[in-house]
Amino acid sequence: MAGTSGFSVSGYGPERSTLSRLFARDSVLRRLDWWILLAALALSVIGSALVYSATRNRTELVGDDPYAFLIKHVINIGIGLALMAGTIWLGHTMLRTAVPILYGISVFLILLVLTPLGATINGAHAWIVVGGQSLQPAEFCKITIILGMAMLLAARVDAGDREHPDHRTVVQALGLAAVPVAIIMLMPDLGSVMVIVMIVLGVLLASGASNRWVFGLLGAGALGGVAIWQLGVLDDYQIARFAAFANPALDPAGVGYNTNQARIAIGSGGLTGTGLTNGSQTTGQFVPEQQTDFVFTVAGEELGFVGAGAILLLLGVVLWRACRIARETTELYGTIVAAGIIAWFAFQSFENIGMTLGIMPVAGLPLPFVSYGGTSMFAVWVAVGLLQSIKVQRPLSA
Amino acid sequence: MTNIPETGRTPRVQIRLVVIQILVVSLLLTLGGRLWYLQVRNGAEYAEEASGNHVQQVVQPAVRGEILDARGVPLADNQTRLVVSASRTELMKMKDDGKAVLAKLAAVLGMSTKDVADKVRLCDSKTPQPCWNGSPYQPIPITDEATPKQALQIRERSEDFPGITAEPTAVRRYAAPGKANTAQVLGYLSPVTDEEIEKAKDTDSPFLRSDQVGRSGLERTYDKQLRGKAGVTRYEVDNLGRVMGKAKSDKAEPGSNVVTSIDARVQAAAEYWLNDAMKKARQEFDKNTGENYKADAGAVVVMENKTGRVIAMASNPTYDPNAWVGGISGKDYAKLTGKKSNYPLLNRAIQGQAAPGSIFKVIPTTAAVNAGYEFHGSYPCPSSYSIGGQVFKNFESQGHGNITLGQALEVSCDTVYYKLSHDEWRKDGGNKPKKDPKDWFYRTAHQFGLGKETGIDLPNEVTGRVPDRQWKKDYWKANKDAWCKQGKKGGDYAERIAYENCLEGMKMRAGDSVNYSIGQGDTLVTPIQMATIYSAIANGGTLYNPTVGKAIVSPDGKRIEEIKPKAHGKLPMDAALRKDIDGALADVATKGTAAWRFGGWPQDKIPMHAKTGTAEVYGKQTTSWFATYTEDYSIVMTISQGGTGSGASGPAVRQIYNAMYGLDDEGNQDLKKALLPKPQKSLPKIQPDGSIDAPKVKPFKPAKPKSPEELQEQQQQQGDPQDQQDPQDQQDQQQDDQQELAGAPAGWRRD
């Protein structure tokens, strides 16, 4: 190894300084995936601007302080970054051992939602309010399900016992996902259920589980959808959302209103948008939930095709790099975790943006990194931490 | 660490990871494509939709321009009043359709609940007035006479009165300066209808929902100029309608002011004397019908000869145009339009038509001269004229021997015209008309502008009628079926007439021609037509389009668009004939049929010309006509079922002249008292700020008329030679009446 020679210059001890270690070729910082980090940071910055624009004159939410939401959002990003750093520091392999505990905690938290501690916000009973802070435990569940399934599915393979996970392991893994899904369905938080189903699919695909499981799950998902519809598990508002999706002209003042106004907002942005805080649809608060689920409409109206396209591009960078990480890591565990995160980010982004563009039905899901909302922000940054950890812990190839 | 560790991935996993990557990319591309489609391809469409979303218009109605008289006195102006309005859209949102709120409002305003409810209902074919004729989205005025206290009550308890507003608003006021109400000339306003909005949408003066539109009179003719442009402020609003900012703001532009040629003082005098003449006529006994004259309607026109400008125009019965302001009440509406109302909304000066009687005779006189007869020739004026057994009488069967056409005018000799007209009828082929008949008498009437509108700047003028060959044919075609069904040979009078009409109603018969020549029969004229004709005789022959509007003055007073007199024809008479007729009409005033009404008139200073007329109307009392002119003015008055020309209308016309020239009954002129001894040429003075000077107008007070006894004394003292006929002498007056009966008494068709 280079670095120790007879001519040591004063000030350079045999131990490298912290700074130089940080920038050393094999250092964590050097090995981080900066593309993902910078793209995610850029999305968060854009998101902050959009959240500010959407909330600055919602006096019923922000009171006298137009920056109230912006400040909270930036704090959330800060916490998210810290969580990411912590995740990298701990490392995904280290976390692997803690998965059962984390899984247990997350299931406990979603169970709390069903207790009197649970709160209904915006028609979804998916929250718990602790000390004035509302949390959406289903967001953490997405992570623990990915970690838990990956742990189960990769255990034998990474140990070199098997080439692919056996059926028993797959059943165990599905069972692990099924418990929180069932609880979340009881809330009901259909958006989260859809995302988790997609995560499970991604995880199964990446684990190398037999094709039969993949297609079986797809078939079960379809059947489940029909069953849910037929059995009337869905609330009226959820049925109405689907109906409005199928025919937006159905009730332009009611359910179709949101999607209609969202599309008007985005469409009126044109190529370059009206400029931040200049959008009349946004300023006039014609689109509901514009800082959270419909944040993309702010981008569409005020930043135009250029700005909204940039968000898509940045998401693309994150996902593209994540795919690379999934492909290049040495252990199946890392691959599965990365694939789960890809499925999560990809589907949630597609559903969120798709509903504002009128090509997906409305579901209450935040846009990763961009939407306002603490729990979701923390969760995605933890996920970024996991991706980074997978990349960092991969042995250097040269 | 040189060994690359085995990856945990099999080719299966590797392939699946690529599949995932492809899926992810395609999802993002889908979003990108859709985004492009919405924003770039259809962006403009959505932008438009967005602007419609968040822009609210607030309309500030333009202050309507004023209508001023020739000296600047406002005949119609605006007044700030407290208007209480109800928003129908708000009321309809309530469970009981706002009934409770309206009831509460009625209590505050001291109106009945029903009256209030009626005002906010929408008009349709089944809903009688009062009802709201305007847009249902516009606040509906309930009253424009709220007291400040009532307005305060409503405003302070706005939560008790949702949808109700009380705002100071400029509303129209018809000021009636000096009691010159001028109702029919001014017209009235009512809210714009949905159809009108739709129709005017793409024109250069589209309507706003709040607009009031001129429905008749000057308000209608000059609506566009008076209306101005409403101010529209476009506010950007949020989804709850809260204002976020002003998007665009067009200031309200007040309407232009219209200066008219009406002189409020003369107008007041004309209205007073017309009404007075009708009241007096109702005290006169009509021996033909055996009851007093009904004098149910009348009109008078005062016109400037050299311009055709109307100085006064009165129609009776009349009404208060302020009744329309702020929505008309049901009672008022019935009063104005009901069957019993006698239709005071009609401007009888331009919409009333009747046979002209002898004031028509200037036309056959001109026709005869143009046909080759000498004006100063000698024409027999026997007591009657018969055509194939039918006898057409002169007044009281009185003969005058051989006279000139001028004298025929002076004494209103019918038989002279009977013969001339009959001769011409025969020359044109009689019952078997030539292919190209000359029709001198009819052609001349058309040349005088009869049978069509004069083109006055007031809406809905009627044409009158010249009963020429073409009209006879058309009329017969339209009515023959009914006539032939009803007609019976040897039946009662109506049946015999119908029978006759069925057989030969399409033909111009000798009797038709003869009756026509003295302004009887099917001839119809309007007072404005006759005023135009007599003005033309006075001014040398130019038929002017009568005008009421004189100038349009922009609200800032900077642009003044004068409405220039416009002619539509020349009388078919040369200077010599004009002079002859002029002389004959002067003789009418000094020694003819109108002379007894112009006793003491200073003929040397102010030469008076006149023609009296009394027209027969089948089944009704006679129509009184009086056409006069001086050098500057013409006055034509008519009273339906009012008696004779000079009898009913004569004194009133003279009184109007007296007021204008400052004359007393003895003919002494006091220029200080004269309202308008010379036509008002200049426009009122316009101040730099656009306001227009207006002199004060005192209410018109007629000079106290002398009692009949005094009048009698006076005339005896003066010993006026022309006035041997004492007006008090019933016998003489009757004789004069009979002169005016012009031909066969009632039932002339039968003779």
From TrEMBL, chain A:
Reaction(s) the record says it catalyses: [GlcNAc-(1->4)-Mur2Ac(oyl-L-Ala-gamma-D-Glu-L-Lys-D-Ala-D-Ala)](n)-di-trans,octa-cis-undecaprenyl diphosphate + beta-D-GlcNAc-(1->4)-Mur2Ac(oyl-L-Ala-gamma-D-Glu-L-Lys-D-Ala-D-Ala)-di-trans,octa-cis-undecaprenyl diphosphate = [GlcNAc-(1->4)-Mur2Ac(oyl-L-Ala-gamma-D-Glu-L-Lys-D-Ala-D-Ala)](n+1)-di-trans,octa-cis-undecaprenyl diphosphate + di-trans,octa-cis-undecaprenyl diphosphate + H(+)
Gene Ontology CC annotations of this record: cell division site; plasma membrane
EC number of the protein: 2.4.99.28
Entry's Gene Ontology BP terms: cell division; regulation of cell shape
Principal localisation: membrane
Recorded metabolic or biological pathway in which this protein acts: Cell wall biogenesis; peptidoglycan biosynthesis
Cellular localisation: Membrane
Membrane topology: Multi-pass membrane protein
MF-aspect GO terms: lipid-linked peptidoglycan transporter activity; peptidoglycan glycosyltransferase activity
UniProt keywords, alphabetically: Cell shape, Membrane, Transmembrane, Transmembrane helix
The organism's place on the tree of life at top rank: Bacteria
Segments traversing the membrane: 34-55, 67-89, 101-128, 140-157, 177-206, 213-232, 303-320, 332-350, 370-387
Protein name (record): peptidoglycan glycosyltransferase
Organism name: Streptomyces longispororuber
Automatic annotation (TrEMBL), chain B:
Domain Penicillin-binding protein transpeptidase: 298-657
The Penicillin-binding protein dimerisation domain, residue ranges: 60-245
A GO-annotated cellular component: plasma membrane
GO molecular function annotation: penicillin binding; peptidoglycan L,D-transpeptidase activity; serine-type D-Ala-D-Ala carboxypeptidase activity
Pfam families: PBP_dimer, Transpeptidase
GO biological process: cell wall organization; peptidoglycan biosynthetic process; proteolysis; regulation of cell shape
Top-rank lineage group of the source organism: Bacteria
Location(s), subcellular: Cell membrane; Membrane
Disordered: annotated segments: 679-751
Protein keywords: Cell inner membrane, Cell membrane, Cell shape, Cell wall biogenesis/degradation, Hydrolase, Membrane, Peptidoglycan synthesis, Protease, Transmembrane, Transmembrane helix
Ranges that cross the membrane: 17-37
NCBIfam families for the chain: pbp2_mrdA
Protein name (database record): Penicillin-binding protein 2
